Model the fold of this input.
Amino acid sequence: MGYPLRCIGNPRVANSNRRSKPQVYRVKPVINSYSQAGTAPFETRIEQAPVIVVGTADNKGFSILVDSLSGQRCEVICVEHHGQLYDHVLEQATLVFVLVSGFSVQLLNAETEALIRRAPHISVIPVVEYAEQERATALLERGCVDYLLAPFSSTQIKALLQRHAAAASAQESFVSCSAAGRRLLAMAQRVAVTRAPILITGETGTGKEMMARYIHRFASGDNAPFIAVNCAAIPEQMLESLLFGHERGAFTGAVTAQCGKFEMANGGTLLLDEIGELPLGLQAKLLRVLQEQRVERLGGHKEIALDVRIIAATNRDLSEEVAQGRFRSDLMFRLDVLPLHICPLRERQDDVLALARRFISRYAPQEDAEHLLTEQACQALLQHDWPGNVRELENTLQRALILRKGLFIQPQDLGLAFAAAPVGAPRLPDLDAGDGKAALRATGKWAEYQHVLDTIRKFDGHKSKAAQSLGMTPRALRYRLSAMREQGISMPAF
Done:
């Protein structure tokens, strides 16, 4: 076939009455003079991890794909079907190409979904022909990050690998394992290649600034400037000078010239956070800057050319703000060129544990993030609604790391109102809001009472030891249990 193949499995020799076992092959990369000298430029060192290709030589585009990947110095692992993607194979790779023409629609969709759930770190790229683009669209909805349209060239393969490498580098800024999150990241990668304004919407705490940083790192890397401005935190009298800069003597106290945030972000990204809070007077000036890509300092007479990616973020409905007369419609249309909406965390349950482990790695790098959370603690995290979204989750993990009472994080360390009890342990009964008892949740008593019961259960019903652990006398514990009964809490038999 023109490229070296080496079997890494244990193939069986076929006989006349028995089919041979499908084999897994490893394709050696093409080594050029750069690699031999040890001075390869960045663009020739695109992908370090092996790349998996699912398909056979009979599939159209298979040979071209493998040759192109090998030509980009990628080590390619070729398998005939998804069943050969064993754990040790998936652990090595971060990118999988699937030749769609070799599979039925039902099988392909099911296998792709299973692969993404099994290995969330893997980026799956379907390879389709023109007539199969609808299948590619369906796979994108299931969590694929991109697709490759045949016929393709080596230049397209190189560009795709570069995007994948940039996405892997930017992944530190925005973590997502859910299907909705993966679709969002795929869209973010597409909009990042343009300088058109980007509008990020979502509830407070969903990670809008993190998404902006992801786009910035994906498109510009770490060397270009990233400037963030909170439009709601700065007085209106100062905001214009802060954004556009000023010359010496432009106003009282302007003893020196000062460049604005637009100039500081030149060549990079400017995030206008809480754009819905921008005063109407400044909205017109911002619109002109966006249209002209030029800015003039206060008191100045010279326009400064800009090369800035503008990202706006808000938790408000700008359409409603326009209807209420608080936001200019022309500015909204100018900002809403490439909209991105971040779903609340309660709709991205698959992201909860991945984010939790990321926060553990950030705030306690010496700990084993994969095993620090007990199974019960994981269940408690998954059961919580997270009204504060990712910000609440981050604060919860920080608090748990500081206040935990043992080697591992237990449900009670999380401080959540509905922290999960040990498996098989009885829980506090649901309270009827109609009798006024549901106020326990609002006052935090629900979590307090559950902690008391969990502590007693921990000591196998020994109330004296439980009281000592709770920092109270046995008499005080008896009073506490009596008060709980008066609140309508049924006591389990200890």
The radius of gyration is 29 Å.
